[in-house]
Structures are given as C-alpha cells and as structure tokens.
Amino acid sequence: MTEPSGxxxxxxxxxxxxxxxxxxxxxxxxxxxAFYVRVLWExxxxxxxxxxxxxxxxxxxVVLILWLMFxxxxxxxxxxxxxxxxxxxxGLPAALxxxxxxxxDLVPIIxxxxxxxxxxxxxxxxxxxxxxxxxxHWPQFLGPHRNSMLxxxxxxxxxxxxxxxxxxxxxxxGPAWSGFAVVGDRAVTMEQRGVQEAVVCYDxxxxxxxxxxxxxxxxxxxxxxxxxQTTPTIVGGKVVTLGGTGILNCLDLATGKAIWSKNILTxxxxxxNIWGNAGSPLVLGDAVIVNxxxxxxxxxxxxxxxxxxxxxxxxxxxxxxxxxxTATLCGVAQVLIFNEHAVxxxxxxxxxxxxxxxxxxxxxxxxxxxxxxxxxVLVSSGxxxxxxxxxxxxxxxxxxxxxxxxxxxxxxxxxNNMVVRDGHVYGLDDGTLACVDLSTGxxxxxxxxxxxxxxxxxxxxxxxxxxxxxxxxxxxxxxGRRELTRFSAVSGKTWNPPALAGDLLLVRNxxxxxxxxxxxxx
Length: 522
Hints:
The protein is mostly beta strands. The chain has two domains: 14-112; 138-517, YVTN repeat-like/Quinoprotein amine dehydrogenase (Methylamine Dehydrogenase, Chain H). Helices cover 15% and strands 39% of the residues. The protein is built from five helices and 38 strands. The strands form ten sheets. Strands 3-6-7-8-9 form a five-stranded antiparallel beta sheet, with no helix packed on it. The chain has a five-stranded mixed beta sheet with strand order 4-32-33-34-35, with no helix packed on it. Strands 5-38-37-36 form a four-stranded antiparallel beta sheet, with no helix packed on it. A hairpin with a 5-residue loop joins strand 14 and strand 15 (258-263). Helix 2 runs antiparallel to helix 3 (46-71). It is globular. The relative contact order is 0.11.
C-alpha cells in the first residue's frame, strides 16, 4: 500500500542535513581567542598566557563534544563512533605517557609512564670523621649569606672553551628540588627514595655516599613533582633539614644520626601546601627558624638547635614558598619572610611581627625578599606581578611604616633569587635575563633566555644555571647582556639552586647531580 502524497516520512525527518556551523564557529572563536592571548594581550606573564590557552582548549573541547552529541544532527551511529575515536585518541597517549611535572612556564613535561626508575647512588660507605676545623663553604640555601652572592669568591676564568670545567662526578640521584649544603668534604642534599624521604651526605670530591638518614614520608604532586623542596642547613657539626611533608630533623653531620625530630605542620595545625614545604630552615645562633604558616601566632616558629624545644612563634599568615632570611632594618635585627598574603618582618629575638606589606595572594610567592642598604627591601613575584622596592621607616615610638619607592612589571621573578651589583638589579623576568635600575625601577635591558633557573654573583660575574641544565657565565653590566661562556652540566628541568664551594660547582635536578671544578684565574 503506497503512502498518501504529501504526508511526512519519519525517515526523511531523520535525514535532515547535519548542523555544521557550530563546529566552525567554535573553532574560529577558539583560534581568535588564542591569537589574542599570544599576540594582542598586553603584557601578560608567560604562565598566564599558557593558563589562558589551556582554558580556551578545554572550553572548546567541551563545546565540541556537546555539539557532536546533541546538536550536530548526525546519525547516532556516527556520533557514538566519533566520540569513541576521540576517547581512544586521548586515552592511548594517557595510557603510554604521564605528566612529569611542569616547566617554570607551566608547560607539562611528558614522559613514558613505564620508564625505568632512575637508580640512585650506591649503598653508604663507612662514615668518615668530619674534617677538623673546616669552615663552611656553602652551608645553607643560597650560600653563606643566604643571598646568592659571593663577593670574595674565586676569580672564575671567563672562557670555558679554552679552559673547560673538570667533571669530578656525575650520577643519578633521587628526585627532589633540594640543593646542596657543603662543609669541608661533605655535601648534603635531600632526595625521595621510594616511600622514604632521605637526607643524603655525599663525599664532595668523589660523589660516594657517606651516610643516609630516612623518614617514612613522601611528597608528590602531578604539577609540583616528587620529593622535598628545601636545602639543608649545616652549622656547628649539625645538619638541619625540612621535608616536603613538614618533618624537621636535626642530624649529626659526621654520622647522620638523629639528634631530634618533629613535624612542624602537625605541631602548628597546618596542612601540606600544594607545592609542599619549600622554606629552607634558617639557623641563627641557637634558633632554628621555619615557616609552617600556622594561625594564632604560629606563622613563623623558632626551635632550639640543641634539643628542638620551641623558643618563640609569631604571625598569623599562611606560608608561601619563600625561605626565612635575616636582615637588620632601621637598626632592628629581623627575620624576613614572604608569606601568602604579605611580606613580613619579625623581631629576631621574639618572633613578634614588626611590619608587613600586603602582596597579591592570587599566585605563589617564592623569591626571597632582599634587604638592601638604606633600610630598603626588594620584593618580586611572577605570574604578572613584578617587583617593588620598599622603604622602611621607624618613628620615635618604635613603630615601623612601609612605603613603595617604585613598582615595575619589567622584572617578574618567579623563583629566581635576584642579585644587586653597582646599583642595578639582575633577575630572570619570566625566564629572560633582565637588568633594572635600582634607584628608579627602569628597565635597562631584557634579553637571553635561561628559563626558570638560578644564579650566583661570584665577585663580578653572574654564574647562571639555566632551566635546561646548562651553566653560563654572564658579565653583569647595565649596557647590555654579555654572555661569556657556557657548558652543559646536567640534563632535564633544573630548578634546584646550585652550590659553589671554592671552585667546586654542585648542580642537580630531580634525576641527576654533578660536581665540576671550575677554572679560576690564579
């Protein structure tokens, strides 16, 4: 029986043409948005740009899936088949690869999921006696003065092609973003070894293990990576370390045996931050100063070096990822700390907050506040924030006041610790070396991509460890960047601070460590 003429057919209704215009509109809008972020967005940080691109991709992907499944008018078989192909295309790489942290610009680092585990150094050798009367060479985070500056350091040769650095050892190491602390022939760092968080003491010249102290602890994050974030502090035959989950240890330098231990987070009612504990312990006299970030007067805490007893605490702000450092401002000995919401000055003797200067809490605060002559403090952070030079004053009643002398977005130091030479500030602005006039904040120059690495001002030259593992020498002058020489020291993402003990350079990342003897001018 034939169907009456003019009647509508369900099969014809199901064969309506596919609706393609939402697909093209979404792709065009996503492309224009990405172009705006990359080309037209005025002065974004590199990290903000990458985060914006990621959001554009995610939103576009969600819109396209919704279009495919509910608005495309494609046959249901086609819709499900296309969705299955997309899932397989995304699932296969996810099964084969994993995100192994991110670069300093927040670009994911992709590695094979089933790559071989990185072996670590051999089992401990018999402990050797600590060198008698040895003076600290690089005893803590950022060196003897905790400021990445060695005004009386070695006179480094400026041409490493004519005089190459001598490799003493280079070997795998457990993951961490810790640096080395060096006293005499001992170089101490922190590592993650499976489920054990380890403090490891190496022979400086040979790279052999002298002792290992372990705790059952592990910090790991897909973004932050694996392992502790801090550098040990060596003082008076003791090693003080702070792990990624808050374990504060005081160990014997000769043997690695524990003198005392405690967890600063549980003691001060804090949780582990998303990037772990990153404040390297500061030792002043008999006080071990750390920043758990607890409320009710427990933001900054001092413990007695001899037995771990609490000496004082002060402040209420949550911790950032900066380390406490010492300064004398307006005639008062202080501890400076860059917390989540502000820069703080604490009285050294009591921990009492003397002053604070608010800072945008939207992103992480990592760099060290830098005390300068004239009762000034230089502060910087990344993610588009920039730098400020602060002037401190103190009235007749002893009250502190703080005012900014200048602000600039031309130097956005994410976690590189800046240095000052001849009235100019040198730092990595989103990974590019920049020079700023200290008196005005004016940018002198910005050139040379080193990534989010670290450096040391050694007399009159800048020793840079780049994010890719290269080491470079730069002549820091306001006239322009003058790179003198460089060599490849280690491979892979290198965020760890270097250590320079005499003419011996120690560099490491989350996979390997090395020691080089740098050529010097006699």
